[in-house]
Specification:
Strand 17 and strand 18 form a beta hairpin. This protein is globular. The strands form six sheets. Strands 9, 10, 11, 12, 14, 17, 18 and 20 form an eight-stranded mixed sheet that branches. Strands 13, 15, 16, 19, 21 and 22 form a six-stranded mixed sheet that branches. The protein is mostly beta strands. The two termini are 37 Å apart. The chain has helices at residues 156-162, 173-181, 286-289, 569-572; strands at 11-22, 32-39, 56-59, 68-74, 100-103, 135-137, 144-150, 165-171, 188-198, 211-212, 243-246, 249-250, 253-256, 260-267, 274-281, 292-297, 301-306, 309-317, 326-328, 333-339, 348-353, 389-395, 424-434, 440-450, 454-456, 472-479, 485-489, 494-501, 530-533, 537-544, 560-566, 577-582. The longest helix has 9 residues, at 173-181. It is built from four helices and 32 strands.
Length: 584
């Protein structure tokens, strides 16, 4: 619970970061060593660490809520539990540095938790953008599911994977009225989905049952150009775990009644995409109840929101074969209503995923399920590893009276940003080439060539995206790579205008389109801050740069320091991130 008296007008928390252990499944050989957050607001209580805790619930200032003020304390140990590749930008600093980014938050840059604002325990070294004092979250935005996670330069992928991530729910009066009316169910369950791998044998970074993360760049898995041998430990282009966790538990279940439920779903994985639907289990027996029957679809999803808040109208997914389904890239969120009222009591349902990894071009070795001959670790029915059967819903009998019929669900109007209102149109690029060790590297760039003829820029190069505060801009982002990249924008939410195929292979800075533009998917028509950008497509977005009025100007840049980047965390750090400096 927040302290509402320490700083009048604020809800105050103190959150500490530390190392702990947790038994994530009874079949694991021991409790897993993790890094995480704990609530230390009450000085008389001992902070309790648990996976994905603490979840913060706040009220939007747009409908009378208070801003949040948080003191973050770094009490991480000096040795990282995962292999650290010090060849990445900034990764040669202290391995226990950290910083907290409120993902999706409209916050001053001094509280954004950007990659250069890291700090270490005991008033040790700090990053170039670090600011003393608490973090301030104005909460001056729509009702939505935000999340907070580590963003320290060079080790974001490791810190978040080790457990430094949790959820932040923001509610406004409009949402509360919908809940009070019954239009949105009051039965609400967050679902944070992550993939991990556990060690089978001890090594220098831990014991069997601890988290495993790759330390060697394997040329038989990832392309390697001629160059110096990669260091050990080495970063890898993407990481795909073989075991799914939901809310910090391995293959969990939820007991449900034949009623309507609301689920707030977050893809918190490093690189894995999820295409989600409900299917009935093969039977109600133990082994059968954990195995999906993909020929028997379960209830559809009614999506009412994304990471930017409510959609302009609900979108029905999975309602018939070949209907639109729910695709979530890393960092994307979905606000869903699922009606179990027609599910027979005693049924078992499986939350099922069949998205390829990498996305969209699959490597079958990263798809774990019984019967896949390409699995490096064979899967046994009823047991892991399995990245297709994520969790189970056990539908029991109705307790108490049935739900009353829900009134019509009228969602808030979305005021569009028009392309014609933009002061600037930028052409930007997503690029893939090789670093000095010959490893695959992903980078953002412009439409101008640099570094041997590529369009890419390094994360540490001078800023090229420098809008003015208050301006509206259109960005046309051309994907020259073979991956779909979830591009995340700090500070701003965006609206997707269109996507259009172009000749990526012969791109010269002047695109040759070879098909008509198409509008965003129906469940992308609201506000978003993480946008999927597909291979060979131009994705056009529009955004308005409103900076909190009391934010100070950075001495380092003369502006307000944010970033934009791919939220495949291995891409972000090598080297798919660029400064976004909003000028006063």
């Amino acid at each position: 619970m927040p302290n509402t008296t320490k700083y009048p007008g604020y809800e105050y928390y103190k959150i500490t970061m530390g190392e702990y252990t947790a038994l994530l499944h009874p079949d694991l050989p021991k409790a897993t060593r993790l890094w995480g957050y704990a609530d230390a607001t009450d000085p008389s209580a001992v902070p309790v660490f648990r996976p994905l805790g603490p979840l913060i619930v706040a009220a939007s200032a747009l409908t009378g809520g208070k801003p949040v003020r948080i003191t973050y304390a770094n009490n991480l140990p000096p040795v990282h539990p995962l292999p650290v590749d010090v060849s990445l930008p900034g990764a040669d600093a202290a391995p226990n540095r950290a910083v907290v980014h409120l993902h999706g938050g409209h916050v001053p840059w001094t509280s954004d938790g950007g990659p250069y604002a890291w700090f270490t325990p005991g008033n040790g070294p700090v990053g170039s953008d670090w600011q003393p004092g608490d973090s301030f979250y104005p909460n001056d935005q729509r009702s939505t599911l935000l999340w907070y996670h580590d963003h320290a330069e060079g080790i974001t992928r490791l810190n978040a994977y080790a457990g430094l991530a949790s959820a932040y729910i923001l509610r406004d009066g409009f949402e509360l009225a919908l809940i009070a009316s019954g239009a949105i169910p009051s039965r609400e369950i967050p679902l944070v989905i992550q993939d991990k791998t556990f060690k089978q044998f001890a090594d220098q970074w831990g014991l069997a049952g601890d988290l495993w993360y790759p330390s060697i760049y394997e040329p038989d898995r990832w392309e390697l150009e001629d160059g110096s041998p990669p260091p050990i430990p080495s970063c890898v282009p993407e990481f795909f775990g073989d075991t799914i966790l939901v809310n910090g538990a391995v293959y969990p279940f939820v007991d449900a009644e034949p009623r309507r439920y609301r689920f707030r779903v977050l893809n918190g994985s490093n690189a894995r995409f999820y295409t989600l639907k409900l299917v009935y289990a093969q039977s109600s027996t133990f082994l059968g109840s954990t195995e999906p029957d993909v020929t028997k679809p379960g209830p559809p999803f009614l999506q009412i929101g994304t990471e930017g808040g409510f959609l302009p109208s609900p979108v029905l997914l999975n309602y018939r074969p070949n209907a639109p389904t729910l695709l979530l890239a890393p960092a994307e969120r979905a606000d869903l209503i699922i009606d179990f009222s027609e599910v027979p009591p005693g049924s078992r349902l499986i939350l099922y995923n069949d998205a390829p990894a990498p996305f969209p071009g699959p490597d079958e070795r990263d798809d774990y399920y019984p019967g896949n001959p390409k699995n490096p670790t064979p899967s046994t029915p009823g047991y892991g590893p399995n990245t297709r059967a994520l969790m189970q819903f056990r539908v029991g009998p109705l307790v108490g009276p049935p739900d009353t019929p829900a009134p019509p669900l009228m969602l808030p109007t979305i005021i569009p940003l028009f392309e014609s209102s933009a002061t600037t149109v930028r052409d930007l690029t997503l690029n893939e080439d090789f670093d000095g060790y010959g490893r695959l590297i992903q980078r953002l760039g412009t439409d101008g060539r640099l570094y041997g003829g590529t369009f890419a820029r390094n994360s540490t190069d001078a800023a090229t995206e420098t809008p003015r505060a208050g301006d509206t801009e259109v960005w046309r982002i051309f994907n020259l790579t073979g991956d779909t990249h979830p591009i995340h924008f700090h500070l701003v939410n965006v609206q997707i205008l269109e996507r259009q195929p172009f000749d990526a292979r012969h791109y010269t800075g002047a695109p040759k389109f070879h098909g008509p533009p198409r509008p965003p998917d129906f469940n992308e028509t609201g506000w978003k801050e993480t946008v999927r950008m597909n291979p060979g497509e131009m994705t056009k977005v529009v955004m308005n740069f409103q900076v909190p009025s009391w934010a100070p100007v950075s001495v380092r840049t003369g502006g307000y320091n944010y970033v934009w980047h791919c939220h495949i965390l291995e891409h972000e750090e090598h080297d798919m991130m660029r400064p976004l400096i909003v000028m006063p």
